[in-house]
Specification:
Blueprint lengths: L3 E5 L7 H12 L3 E6 L4 H6 L9 H10 L2 E6 L2 H4 L4 H11 L2 E7 L12 H11 L2 E5 L3 E2 L2 E2 L2 H9 L3 H5 L7 E7 L4 H4 L5 E4 L11 E9 L2 E10 L10 E6 L10 E12 L6 H16 L4
Parallel strand pairs: 1-2, 1-4, 2-3, 4-5
Antiparallel strand pairs: 6-7, 8-9, 8-13, 9-12, 10-11, 10-13, 11-12
Length: about 290
């Protein structure tokens, strides 16, 4: 393997802070290797269900687009008991590292006692260059994956997207629904939302977009539990504007752009039809 620059971080969501870490590593002139975790350690330590901003596949695509030649995953259980020095010894033995780039709050070693100060001191003795990306802020808050998760839970996807490398999105196979959308005059594409992996956005209706056959389409996407029909599992129903091709048995991406309204239990089919028509008209304004 050639001499390389290591980019260290969880890189969940690939926000502006993450991008600056990758950019600094790339500007070193060495091949860039991202050293990360499949699941942020905070979820492993707490035992909570992961609420990721992107899948591993999406993260790897984004890293590759930013110039990373290789993405390697650390096994948290294997490294969590190492001292900071043992952790750095391990990665320096495995990689011909000439430069390390990380965020200002990167922690490592048992109980997270290793910090960027320790990293600089260790690398100085090894002749390794270190770049520590500064904190990036929005509205007096430090941009972080935790902040972005909360934004999405609150339905603030438009605000979150401004801080992300790419809009918040998810992939999923098209599943057979109950065909109610077609009877309402708005045939929908149905997907099970991957809530076992990704953070669940605020239940409601979103303006979004998708790509089919390389062409972009605007869409109206409802994520939630369909209170009118009392569904228990989070579902995603999407009406793709000016599109009428059957997408059964395909896997495709939905990108959320902005929150339109909360879910509501409608008293009649006519009232529901009227609300959907208003949602579609709202999204059509984005197309002008």
């Amino acid at each position: 393997m050639k001499e390389c620059a290591l980019a260290l971080g969880t890189f969940d969501g690939m926000h502006k802070g993450h991008v600056s870490v990758i950019k600094a590593a790339r500007e070193s002139g060495f091949e860039v290797v991202a050293l990360t975790f499949a699941v942020p350690p905070k979820f492993i330590i707490s035992g909570e269900k992961p609420e990721l901003l992107m899948t591993a596949e999406a993260k790897e695509r984004a890293l590759a687009e930013l110039g990373v030649i290789r993405c390697d995953y650390l096994d948290f259980k294997e490294v969590c008991q190492l001292s900071p020095e043992e952790f750095l010894d391990l990665i320096c033995q495995k990689y011909p590292v000439k430069m390390i780039s990380c965020g200002f709050n990167y922690r490592f070693g048992k109980d997270g006692v290793g910090d960027t100060k320790f990293l600089r001191e260790y690398c100085r003795e090894k002749g390794i260059t270190v770049h520590v990306a500064r904190a990036r802020q929005v509205e007096n808050e430090i941009i972080s994956s935790s902040l972005l998760r909360q934004m999405i839970k609150d339905g603030r996807v438009a605000d979150a997207n401004k801080l992300l490398y790419k809009p918040f999105s998810f992939f999923g196979p098209v599943v057979h629904g109950d065909a109610r959308g077609r009877t309402l005059g708005f045939p929908t594409v149905n997907q099970n939302y991957p809530e076992e992996q990704l953070v669940l956005p605020k239940a409601g209706v979103y303006a979004g977009e998708t790509y089919v056959g390389g062409k972009r389409y605007h869409c109206v996407t409802n994520i939630g539990f369909r209170p009118t029909y009392a569904v228990k599992k989070a579902l995603c129903e999407t009406f793709i504007i000016d599109f009428d091709t059957n997408l059964y048995d395909t896997v495709f991406e939905i990108r959320l752009k902005r929150f339109l309204r909360s879910e509501k239990k409608f008293s009649s089919v006519k009232e529901l039809q009227k609300a959907i028509a208003a949602d579609v008209e709202n999204v059509r304004e984005d197309m002008l």
